[in-house]
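Write out the 3D structure for:
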Amino acid sequence: MAANPATPVGDSEAIAQLQQRFEAHRRAFLRHPYPSARERRAHLYALAAALLDNRARLREALRADFAVHPDATADLVDIGGPLGRSLAAARQVRGWMRPERRRVERLAFGSSTAQVAWQPKGVTGIVAPWNFPFDLSFGPLCDMLAAGNRVLIKMSEHTPACGALAAEILARTFAADHVAAVNGGVALGRAFAALRWDHLLFTGNPEVGREVAQVAAANLVPVTLELGGKNPAIFAPDAVTAEHVNLALDVKLVNSGQMCVAMDHCFVPRPQLEAFVRLARAHFAGALQDYSRSAHCTGIISPRHFSRQLQLLEEARAAGARIEQLDAGGAVDSRTRRLPVSLIIDPPAELRLMKEEIFGPLLPVIPYDSVSELIDSLNRGERPLALYLYTHDRRLIERFRDGTMSGGLGVNASAAQAALDDLGFGGVGRSGSGRYHGRDGFREFSNPRGVFVRGRGGGFDNFLPPFGPRKQRRIDALFALRRLQLRLARFRAG
């Protein structure tokens, strides 16, 4: 089952190797298009075992690519995330595979039956991002394996150590024509997106996501896009408390804010703005006062991304925005690409900080005067991947649930909705399309094949020519029945 990990020595050779792998996967799928539940469980258990067996090496690769990367973050997200999902999928895959019966109207179709049979799509692709290189490659791999597919993964060029290790692990765990990872730069990424996949998953920013969708559309390839966005957090008047402020800031610290579901900016009632700042500063006055110097702080992924964070901060300072550095003992460290956590208070709307996804340890804090005006403003903007609301007011929770739009909604917690193995995850509008994780992922990467088996009786022949007076009377009787059904339904509805 072993295969050589992809180690491209040039764009043309890497692309040729990719094409060969893709064709091998397609041939293998055609030979065995419907793996049994037992086979799928075995594949998922093999992935789980690989994650457990390589825990130390996975941690090491993350440290190599990020300069500083806490082992706890690696354990809980990049390793623990796909580990939990693989085991959960293995427990449930037999039930997911079971065909679903659908209603058949006896008057028209007699004893005929109908069902949805979940069929593997075939050869599926994953374009993984750099921020959680294992969670966002091996994680969706769980869903695709549960659905019975063959899978190729394009790892990010920003995480070469993680990419090389992923290719090695998959090569030792799966047959070469079943699951594999490839590594390369932009040219390989474009060639990857241009293949005639049976389904393609891309995780990244909206600009690149648009290009991927356009390239895939040329081959009519269905795509799942997870594109992030500027996720707002709203603090209701009852929620500017130490409990809520501390929790929201702690989640912002995960991976130094390099997380698609991180709180990008927050809204605070104007009368409580200073209370919010005091609570935030108090939270960092203890164990977090030198946070950016500590081993708990993840490095920014690359010098370019690190420089961008500094530029965003400097632009805000030059525009006269008030900046509150929370970890008072922190410092900018270009060697390890770490920088202090900072609040930017009520920044001008024209700043890049307010237009671009931040993806770092900077947090704009924006005062608001009216919940109604805030909801209207949110609805006029782009639909984010996540929206967070901090409150204990049930009516307000329902108001945001029913009156706003986002890929996910978190109440009194950030990012938790993306960590559940049985809750569909994805965006809407500019923040993405499609859902995966658990049953939703199984269905996303399966073909819901409608199956009809004709039985006896019914008026099926009424649909078929030639049409005469006798068939027309049957058709008229059917319409009379429909009118009666409508009247009864309206009566029952009041």
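Confidence is low (pLDDT under 50) at residues 1-9.
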